[in-house]
Amino acid sequence: MKLKTLLITLCLAGTATFAQKVKYSRENIKKMETYLFNEGFNSPSAKKTSTIILKDGTTHKGFCGKIETKKGQIYEVALKDSITKKNEVFNADQINEMYVYPTNAEKIAKVGKYMGNIRNFGTKKLTKNTDGGRIHFVNQTVSLKNKKDDKEFLMQLINPEFSDIISVYHDPRAKETAGFSMMGSPQLGGGVIKSYYVKKGDKVMWLHKDDFEDNYDFLFGDNQEFMKKYPKNSVEWDYFSFLINEYTAMTNG
C-alpha cells in the first residue's frame, strides 16, 4: 500500500513539474531569439596592427604574417614587430591575450551570408558583421570537441560584454542548422550556430546544441530565480546568447 502511495505521489510530482512549462509571448520569444554574441571570425588581418600580451606581462604590437591552426583553433602566431620590423613567432602557451582585426574579405563574406538568410533580419545586427572592432582572443586550455587531449589555444571570446561568469568562445568548425531556399531566393529559417566552447568556473567544454539540455543545470542551476523564469523545458538552443546574458544580469543583480 505504501509503495502504491509513493508511486502515485511521484507521478503527481512529475505531472506538476511538466505543468510548470512557461509559455512566452511572441514579443518575448522574438527578444530571446536575438543573437547577442559577437560575430565569429577566422582570418585576422595582416594589414592592421595586432596586439599580443604574453603571460610574462610584455606587450608586442605588429602585423600577423602567419597564423597556424589546429581544427580551426590558433596555436601559433607569427608577428612582424611594428617598430623593429623583426619577425617573431609565439606559441599559444606563451600568450595570455591577443587583439586582432578581421580581414575585409571575411567581413564582406559575412555580410553576404547575412543578406542570404531572411531569419537574420530579425535576430542579428548587420553591424556585428561590418564594424571595424578588434577581435579578442584569450588563451584557454581545452579538449577539442571534448575528445582530444587538453591543449592551449587562442580562442575568440564572443561575449566580452557579459563574460564575467560564463565565457563563450567561437567554434571555427561549428555547423549551422539547415534552412530552406527556392530558386536562389534568400534562405528561410536555419542559420543557427550549433556549437560553442563555453567556460564556467574552471571547466571549459565544447557545447553542442544536442547536449544543451544535459548541461543546462550546470550552466544556470545555481540561480533558482533564473531557473524558475527560464526552465529548461521551456527554452530552446536558439535562445542561448540571450540566456547567457540574462543569467549574468540576474546573477549580478
UniProtKB/TrEMBL annotation:
It comes from the Bacteria. This is Uncharacterized protein.
